[in-house]
Amino acid sequence: LQGYVGFANLPNQVHRKSVKKGFQFTCMVVGESGLGKSTLINTLFNTQLYPGKYNDEAPVESPKTVEIKSITADLDENGVKLRLNVVDTPGFGDFVNNEASWKPILDNIEARCDMYLEQENRVNRLKIVDNRIHACIYFIAPTGHALKQVDIEFMRRLHTRVNLIPVIAKSDTMTEEEVFAFKERILSDINFHNIQIYQAPQYEYDDAETIAENREIVSKIPFAIVGSDKEVETEGGRKVRGRAYPWGVVEVDNEDQCDFVKLRQMLIRTHMEELKEHTNNVLYENYRTEKLTAMGI
Ligand code: GDP
Ligand code: MG
């Protein structure tokens, strides 16, 4: 079914509680300019999700500083509401000296935690607004080589503060074999530098189908992404979202050609609640403890 994402099928208990007030999820995209962050956001918000309301907060043209801007879409699927916020960070990694590119982003993530903490400490805690980042999609350039210093530095600085989900940008510029080898290389670099990317837990009490589905999703990390907000025509005359090349079309929504669908499934369906729980129970909790300890409380 075209356009069907499946957040309406979240596990029943979570589901019943949340159906009324709706779900809310915030993710951030980070990576050097030109790697396809804005395109991915459009691809996520585009036809595969039910059309939502855009509210671009800032002009598209960006100066050479890291900016933080967010886009919200209110989605509705079978009467289940999802407010999806995506935070873009144009300017990251664009400086001559990128040593501190991670800093404004870390500051932003922590400021969101501070806002939450401040609300928790209020007398009336019933109307807490949660602007914390539940997942950070980090774009790796499709070089096929080792991770760059800027990648390692960013992930090293951020991994205790946010759920990191690395992706290979513009994976249509690599062959299937190159993508496969590059994934191995990225994971071994991440491992070497003791970086904790998001580890999706497997629950043995899930049914076999769910376990298999989760395993399949997790096995694709770092997801090889192709983004496109344009429709192109395949050789067979189908209109698809994709990128056209002289030798053929790469389809965004074709799981044999890239991992976009898997990334979207993980974020919006299979792991949305888990990403939020991990953010709250582990990442935020650690931040809160550090902060209060530092304040001598
Ligand atoms: P951003 O600077 O990270 O926001 O990158 P943009 O989304 O603006 O994309 C920069 C350029 O790369 C544009 O010309 C896009 O059409 C192109 N682009 C985006 N995603 C892909 C992709 O998956 N594959 C390829 N080959 N090009 C892409
Ligand atoms: Mg952009």
From TrEMBL:
Assigned GO CC terms: cell cortex; septin cytoskeleton
All residue ranges annotated as the Septin-type G domain in the record: 21-294
Entry keyword annotation includes GTP-binding: yes
Highest taxon, organism lineage: Eukaryota
UniProt keyword NAD present: no
Keywords tagged on the record: GTP-binding, Nucleotide-binding
Gene Ontology molecular-function annotations: GTP binding
Family indicated by similarity: Belongs to the TRAFAC class TrmE-Era-EngA-EngB-Septin-like GTPase superfamily. Septin GTPase family.
Annotated protein name in UniProt: Septin-type G domain-containing protein
Shown segment, full-protein numbering: 35 to 331 of 432
